[in-house]
Specification:
This protein is an alpha/beta fold. 30% of the residues lie in helices and 21% in strands. The strands form two sheets. It has a nine-stranded mixed sheet. Strands 3-2-1-4-5-6 form a six-stranded parallel sheet, sandwiched between helices. β11 and β12 form a beta hairpin. α7 packs antiparallel against α16 and α8 runs parallel beside α12.
């Protein structure tokens, strides 16, 4: 039986029988009422927080109502679900039990935007009901959940899309096409550092992500985005990971703390104080719903129960012989990333400044340079709109999922295999950091029928 470090993408598609084959999910749905035109899918969402509301709710209703009908919203917190419904401008029923939503609303397309640790539960339930699934990253947070999802997909002829929107940002597409051009020849190694600042990075420690049993650590919740990019850029599989991690800034690394920011007595002395009352949407989605589940969206970053890393590094070996050095820090003064691909004929350098204190209006946020050995360094222009979330990636991903079926092979929708390979890299990194040993992905999951 082949392992995830060795089975090819073509073999996986053939044996699992569930690949997207480059098509939009909209090709799979029936036409409503037999009328001509594009098929209309019965669409439901499980988990109604920020991401569901702003990414998979309101824009979908506004831009794709001719091809999807929102038939249900589900959340364990009914107040949050109703708030999300209002913010979306939806008219569908709201449910607190997933099975009831499926039985009454009868969706054939499900968007999963719950706390990460519950993704697998609803993916599996949906697949077993014959429902196609779109899931936010990470697809799962541990190897057992990953195996359950892959097994469920293998026994059902349904489809999974994992929403790796970073692939569709123009800057990332250009990097992919540069690598495909062969200008730097065979890639030998990769240097990759991702910077989370004291705004975005700290935010993970306010929320459920601060707990391992919620997001699997930032090696999984956040870095799965980055690992997917590298897997895609290199067109290779991760094979082995050696990693380390530590908690150096948040959690117990402060002499004071409180439950959450609004009533905190340390507001004036805490550099991470967050005034959520300035955000009307979060007050409606979260503050108004606290009485149901006690969840504070403005939780203290110094709570003693924080058990994830804020400083991480890893060495990842790939099936094509490439080695990547990776670093993720969640407490830096600016936001962005730097990556370099070292090839046999040259090097590609990418620097992206998503948010930084020194930015001036005319300064480009992203710089891409290609330097040839014994040659000249040139700057690569970035074409395509960067308007919208994730550098323009959100809009392109939604459009590809809900409307367009045509795309070049390297821009096809990410499937369950992409979801598995990316999160398994993070899972292996977390295990390596905990157990202080190298972890092979082939020891974590077996792909069904491979």
């Amino acid at each position: 039986m082949a392992q995830p470090g060795s089975v090819t993408r073509r073999e996986f598609v053939k044996t699992a029988g569930t690949a997207l084959a480059g098509t939009s999910l909209m090709n799979a749905g029936p036409s409503a009422g037999g009328r001509p035109g594009p098929p209309v899918r019965r669409y439901a969402i499980i988990g109604t927080g920020d991401r569901a509301t702003s990414m998979w709710g309101r824009p979908v209703l506004q831009e794709y109502s001719d091809v999807v009908e929102l038939v249900g919203l589900c959340d364990v917190n009914p107040i949050r679900a109703e708030a999300s419904k209002q913010l979306m401008g939806a008219s569908c029923p709201v449910f607190t039990r997933f099975d009831e939503m499926c039985e009454r609303a009868k969706p054939d397309l499900l968007m999963v935007t719950t706390v990460d640790s519950f993704h697998h539960e609803y993916i599996v339930k949906a697949l077993d009901r014959g429902i196609d699934v779109i899931t936010e990253k990470p697809m799962v947070i541990d190897e057992k959940q990953c195996q359950a999802v892959l097994d469920a997909e293998a026994r059902n002829r349904r489809k999974i899309i994992v929403t790796f929107n970073y692939r569709y940002a123009p800057r990332h597409r250009i990097v992919k096409e540069l690598l495909m051009s062969g200008e730097i020849g065979r890639v030998l190694s990769v240097d990759f550092a991702w910077y989370l600042d004291v705004i975005h990075g700290a935010d993970y420690f306010r929320r459920w992500h601060r707990l391992r049993n919620g997001g699997g650590t930032l090696f999984v919740h956040k870095a799965t985005h980055h690992f997917d990019l590298v897997n895609w850029w290199l067109d290779a599989d991760p094979v082995e990971v050696v990693a380390s991690g530590d908690l150096k800034v948040y959690g117990r690394n402060s002499p004071f703390r409180h439950t959450h920011c609004r009533p905190c007595p340390h507001k004036t002395e805490c550099r991470f104080h967050y005034d959520m009352t300035n955000d009307a949407t979060r007050m409606k989605l979260y503050a108004s719903a606290e009485g149901v589940d006690g969840y504070h969206r403005d939780g203290c970053v110094f709570r003693e129960d924080v058990n994830i890393f804020d400083t991480m590094s890893a060495i990842v070996k790939y099936s094509n012989g490439v080695t990547m050095s990776y670093e993720l820090d969640a407490h830096l003064p600016y936001e962005g990333f730097a990556i370099a691909f070292n090839g046999e004929f040259g090097r590609i350098d990418v620097r992206d400044h998503e948010r930084q204190p020194w930015k001036v209006a005319e300064e480009d946020e992203t710089e891409i340079y290609l330097t040839k050995s014994f040659g000249v360094r040139r700057r690569i222009p970035i074409t395509g709109s960067t308007v919208g979330g994730h550098g323009g990636g959100d809009t392109r991903l939604r459009d590809l999922i809900f409307r367009k079926a045509d795309a070049p092979d390297h821009l096809k929708l990410p499937d369950s295999r992409a979801g598995a390979m990316s999160c398994l890299t993070g899972i292996a990194a977390r295990k390596s950091a905990d157990e202080k040993r190298a972890v092979r992905l082939a020891d974590l999951v077996r792909f069904p029928n491979a």
